[in-house]
Amino acid sequence: MKKILILSANPKNTNQLRLDEEVREIQSALERSRSREEFQVITKWAVRINDLRRALLDEEPQIVHFSGHGINTGNALLNNNQEQTRERDIVPRHLQPSGIVLEDGFGQTQLVSTKALTELFELFKDKVECILLNACYSENQSNAIYQYIDCVIGMNSAIPDNTAIKFSVGFYDAIGAGRTYADAFKFGCNNIDLNNIPGDLIPVIKSRNSSKSLFLPNSKETKANMSGGGRTINMGSGNYNERIQGNYVQGNYYAGGEKQSLVDAAAEIQKLLEQLDKSYPNNTTTGKMAIATEAIEYIDSNQALAQRVLSALKAGGTQALAQLLNHPAASFVIGALDDWQKTK
Length: 344
Hints:
The protein is of the alpha/beta class and 344 residues long. The chain is 42% helix and 19% strand. It is built from ten helices and twelve strands. The protein has a six-stranded mixed sheet with strand order 2-1-3-7-8-9, with helices on both faces. Strands 4-5-6 form a three-stranded antiparallel sheet. Strands 10-11-12 form a three-stranded antiparallel sheet.
């Protein structure tokens, strides 16, 4: 499961932003995902310095999303007649560095230094995969953090509140669909443009491993839309397997010998997955992906096992094999097997 930690701060002495609407839109984008069970959204409001550190320690998120205000050296004072933006002048302009602001003990603005923020995220470089600083003038901080975190998104200027929200919607729609962080960034920028509002060039990204998907190909866990199950009907020397899933019924006919081949292969894979449980957690997306990767590598390196698995897949297909596996990473393994057999 991927944890998304949303940190929001809107100090009393700053313009009021629609941060609650942004959080609602993010949750809505992920709830519509077919892989929604793979995400957990944790929100923290009126975040202070201590809250930031404690939330990272307690939650160990893979995605950190900051939503709020940012400042920059030389900012002009915000004109009340302008559209709300996520910037705030809080100290004399010649003293202003750039970056995000949190709240102090009195609910007023407290600047977070780039050095301190970067050093904090260095301590979580093995946990955090992506950071989104959805605040004005956060590009400098995102550039600094990038030396430790593989994907960081910031804003290169003041960003209107509505623009920031539209970016989040497109970004998390793509995240929910299992797209890469780099792709999700493009969807976010495109959503700004699609809504015919300015600012699609304001978000900037730095990313390594940009081709790495959040899920293995074809590994999304499908969920039934209606109650159902499976049944096996004996037909002479063979069997007809019928599976009800969602709003459709899928059936396969295979001979008795083919069924035994399928059962044997499933048993071997099941045993392999249980062994891999000792090395990787099976209750997280990362762990499931690691189990699936290791399983495929093991099968591919064992010629006899690889041949048995290929024969079983040809006999009944990946869907039939999936019905015989009972493991949290089964759908990930099936997706990987489907791709693997295409290379053979």
